[in-house]
Amino acid sequence: MTSPPTTHMDESSYPRRLLAEVLGTGILVFIGVGSVPATLLVNGKSPFTMADLGVISFAFALVVIALVYALGHISGCHINPAVTVALAATRKFPWREVPAYIGAQVLGATLGAFAIVGVLGSVAGKELGLGVASFGAGVGYPQAVLAEFIGTFLLVFVVFGVIDRRAPAGWAGLAIGFVVFAAIIVVAPATSASINPARTTGPMLALQALGGNVAWSQIWAYYLGEFLGGLAAGATYVALASARAPEVVPERPIKEAVTQH
User: Fold this and answer.
1) DSSP secondary structure string for all residues of 200-235
2) Is 56 within a domain?
3) Is 164 a domain residue?
4) How does pLDDT run across 220-243, given as a tens digit for each residue?
5) Are 128 and 47 in contact (CB under 8 A)?
6) Mind listing the pLDDT tens digit for each residue in 72-84?
7) Range of the domain at 68
8) What's the alpha-carbon Rg for the chain, to the nearest Å?
């Protein structure tokens, strides 16, 4: 690429960008993941209906939209290790910053999970499962990997599309939020639709610390599907974009992607 990394904001100091990733991922987990035990509490711990799933998906979508516009100009608002790795693999983000970004995202997700318990009470933890992602009934490893792969592919593909300078300006947050909503509706019955390694890990760590039961053996299906889905999406978009235009057009920084001109 001939331009600076798409989500690398030179005007923001490195510590501030990392803090933005901690805060953004924490808010994502608090609102999105927190909507799961909140729904169970309101429903009297009864099983989810499709309407409940819609509300949870909408909570994730709304918080993603808000965060993209609030933090995109600071850190790029990755708030997802699969996004960070896919950007780095396609030379849109420096590999040297990947470990710290992922560390910040996992830290934020863990803090966000503890915040859920702080607000909803201990019942949200051990008793209601803290919104930890898990396989649906009868779902095996291959199906889980495929589900997370497809869900993450859809998310990351849209992220790459909205940061392309040829995309309409100002719609990044809405586009990303809408694809999150759509992906969760279909993928959640299989794997809870984590589509984010930090969202997968943080609540698991928090629930373990709270003494809950965590199916750690499932985590590799999430990691495999999520990281491979992100990498495949990035490679696919780059291939499509290159085929579409003989000259590579630099991606717009996320600061421009979320602002009307």
Assistant:
1) HHHHHHHHHHTT----GGGHHHHHHHHHHHHHHHHH
2) yes
3) yes
4) 999 999 999 999 999 999 999 986
5) no
6) 999 999 999 999 9
7) 14-121+140-257
8) 18
